[in-house]
Specification:
The protein is α/β, with parallel strands linked by helices and 310 residues long. It is built from seven helices and 19 strands. It binds NADPH dihydro-nicotinamide-adenine-dinucleotide phosphate.
Amino acid sequence: MSKTEKVIIVGSGPAGLTAAIYAARANLSPFMIQGEEVGGQLTTTTDVENFPGFPDGVMGPELMDLFIKQAERFGTRFLSKNVTKVDFSTAPFKIWVDEEEHSAETVIISTGASAKYLGLENEKKYLGRGVSACATCDGAFYRDVPVCIVGGGDTAMEEALFLTRFASQVYVLHRREEFRASKIMAERVMNHPKVKVMWNTELKDILGDGKLVKKVSLYNNKTKEDSELEVEGVFIAIGHKPNTDVFEGQLKTNSVGYLETEPGTTRTNVPGVFACGDVQDDHYRQAITAAGTGCMAAMDAEKYLEAQEN
Ligand code: NDP
């Protein structure tokens, strides 16, 4: 086992890396277990136009590289592997990466959230070859062809509108006959000439030629009819799942599975363990808000360590 760290940060998106910058500058010499998807969700995006400080926009992967460089400059150490087990029952806290055991006086969790999928066999088969959970990342590949998007929340609305820039037709498939999305977004979608909303419609299968998607099979749960629809792109926008599996049974979560933090802080129910970014935020889910809570987590950890020493 290696020496007990002052702080281990788990996860390497905007939240974790901001926590690393602040912790490193506070001389806590943070050790970051980045996960195998280094940089988090932004590395799967193209243009980021709403991150302050970049008036001309910045590419997601480039932005995350800059975060990493800044964290590195002040002495953050990195391991690009996934955490496989944790034990937060007593301090120092234990974190395993396969057989390798690490321990820390404080832990900052910033493992983010991942897009949810429907769970269809062909969804996996055609992922990246017609199936996507990120219109912003992949929409431009579908110029002048019909696509569909599954979901009725704000993400589905936002992505459907984005897709109208490229696709010849955008079908919005929703399992009910009312959108969950805000009225203004829903109206924009329903009034768009390139969008056709299909209510009470469930996506049953994704069909292709073995290489690319060609059509989808649908079920109308009101009329009980099956049908097929020709599309070349299938976008799934049915929400996100926080990446908390490895912490199950160790930390309190809220009713939708996100890590619970004390209001206005990043403190979890275990003193010394902090959570920041999308793993504890089911509402804002922005890079800038994640970065903000990352800063808070590092300051909360620093304060906790100070109190332990006195
Ligand atoms: P939501 O949970 O709000 O919506 C998910 C949608 O997917 C719902 O319409 C749901 O249907 C549908 N769905 C869920 N599971 C399935 C399934 N297995 N099969 C078919 N359909 C399914 O997630 P979002 O990602 O849309 O939004 C998350 C949060 O982020 C919200 O608070 C939202 O307001 C916010 N947001 C805000 C934006 C903005 O303000 N610009 C942009 C994007 C998100 P049903 O309605 O029947 O449950």
